[in-house]
Q: What sequence folds into this?
């Protein structure tokens, strides 16, 4: 397995954001991480990407302890945060070059051009990011998250605020990454349409606890994804 | 090495921009006006060259400190507010390297201010005493002070995560640092004035300039003050390291 999370607990000023989270993700999965707003999705991603520390629990990423070897883990993963900002005064190419320089294994100019091609931005490589549309910025963010050819990619609400075409582009991009390069994708979202289209396994989180986890196809045998989501996140049903 | 890339990014973002050039043009304009007044105004030209040099050195130091504080306040809080820090934290760069790169950019800024001020120092101090040694002291102590205040302000910015608040607090610190300037000569001779003078790094620097440029005293007289300035430097770098290590999104 590429992610193993065991009894993860995170508290903020007495408020328990994550309350004994336990789940696993296999290599090659597109794993949907669903939950209502405030359920703990972003906190989980920030812990799994070594941005913040947990109060207790164990996390192994591809066999590496996230708390003991954060820099090793950061070399094999990458992420697109929910509210990702950009250095708007850079061009798309400069932005990717800057992040590439922060890794020991640098990405060549040709590779950066190819990466921009993967996300459909090669014709905009020399344009300032401030001139990009929201969807283009989101695709640039994904290109930045692919700069180190990660085995595991975390995406936090990647299609939020995009129009149908923008969402479709992101969907196609993620499916391509998963199928062509075998990248495992951990997708946090509350958009059930994204989950139906992309994921093979899902976990539903509510009030910092995993309330349901399993194969999407099997779950759908028992009802629509919407029914499962509402049943799992409705207060008092668990 | 990664700190160098962060530094280059910071320099491009804050210095090699129209905004950055405007700062330096304004610095140059203010220094030109000051120098012109020193050299042409009847009352001011009663001052000897050493006094004029001392005053312009104080002004350059204050400008360096002020810009260091602004740089520092934006360093982490600004990136958090613009949503760019998380992507940096996702890279395999430790937080201290990020802080080192940002301090490097703040120092570059001070270096540019110092370079801009050099011709003015030569014009104002030409023919007077202790010009070269004064410039050497300005280079060293100005650098120490620029690091001290930038590091403190960056640490604050990492702790309170709000650019507006860290900027306001930094300005208060700047005013506090400049407080001894407003004391009269009599007040500065009281025990309170002496303590305030001694424990204030900014006052220590300008008193050292006074001692070196006007009173022509040697390094032996400056040791205590320089030691205090170095103490503040170490403390502020420690504060920055500690604040950044604990920084969470």
A:
């Amino acid at each position: 397995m590429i992610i193993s999370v065991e009894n993860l607990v995170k508290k903020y000023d007495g408020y328990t954001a994550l309350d004994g989270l336990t789940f696993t993700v296999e290599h090659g999965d597109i794993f949907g991480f669903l939950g209502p707003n405030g359920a703990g999705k972003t906190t989980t991603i920030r812990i799994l990407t070594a941005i913040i520390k947990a109060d207790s629990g164990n996390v192994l990423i591809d066999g590496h302890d996230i708390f003991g070897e954060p820099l090793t883990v950061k070399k094999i993963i990458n992420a697109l945060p929910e509210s990702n900002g950009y250095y708007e005064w850079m061009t798309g190419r400069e932005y990717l070059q800057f992040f590439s320089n922060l890794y020991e294994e640098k990405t060549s100019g040709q590779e950066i051009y190819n990466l921009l091609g993967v996300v459909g931005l090669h014709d905009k490589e020399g344009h300032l990011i401030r001139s990009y549309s929201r969807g283009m910025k989101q695709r640039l963010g994904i290109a930045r998250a692919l700069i180190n050819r990660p085995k595991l990619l975390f995406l936090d609400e990647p299609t939020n605020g995009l129009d149908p075409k923008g969402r479709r582009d992101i969907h196609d991009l993620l499916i391509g990454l998963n199928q062509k390069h075998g990248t495992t994708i951990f997708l946090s979202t509350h958009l059930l349409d994204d989950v139906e289209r992309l994921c093979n396994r899902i976990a539903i989180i509510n009030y910092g606890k995993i309330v349901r986890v399993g194969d999407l196809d099997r779950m759908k045998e028992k009802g629509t994804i919407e029914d499962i989501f509402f049943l799992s996140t409705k207060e008092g049903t668990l | 090495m990664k700190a160098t890339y962060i530094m280059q990014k910071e320099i491009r973002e804050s210095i090699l921009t129209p905004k950055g050039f405007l700062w330096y043009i304004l610095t140059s304009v203010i220094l030109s006006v000051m120098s012109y007044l020193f050299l042409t105004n009847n009352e001011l030209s009663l001052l000897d060259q050493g006094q004029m040099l001392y005053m312009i050195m104080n002004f350059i130091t204050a400008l360096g400190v002020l810009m260091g504080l602004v740089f520092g306040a934006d360093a982490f809080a600004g990136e958090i507010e613009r949503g760019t820090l998380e992507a940096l934290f996702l890279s395999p760069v430790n937080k201290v390297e990020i802080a080192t790169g940002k301090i490097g950019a703040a120092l570059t800024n001070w270096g540019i201010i110092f370079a801009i001020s050099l011709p003015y120092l030569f014009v104002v101090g030409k023919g007077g005493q202790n010009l070269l040694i004064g410039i050497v002291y300005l280079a060293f102590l100005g650098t120490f002070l620029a690091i001290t205040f930038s590091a403190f302000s960056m640490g604050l910015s990492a702790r309170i995560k709000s650019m507006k608040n860290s900027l306001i607090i930094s300005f208060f610190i700047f005013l506090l640092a400049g407080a001894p300037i407003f004391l009269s000569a009599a007040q500065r001779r009281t025990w309170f004035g002496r303590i305030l003078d001694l424990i204030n790094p900014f006052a220590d620097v300008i008193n050292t300039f006074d001692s070196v440029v006007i009173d022509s005293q040697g390094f032996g007289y400056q040791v205590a003050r320089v030691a205090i300035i170095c103490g503040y430097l170490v403390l502020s770098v420690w504060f920055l390291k500690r604040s950044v290590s604990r920084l969470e999104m």
Summary: The two ends of chain B are 24 Å apart (CA to CA). The first helix of chain B runs from residue 2 to 14.
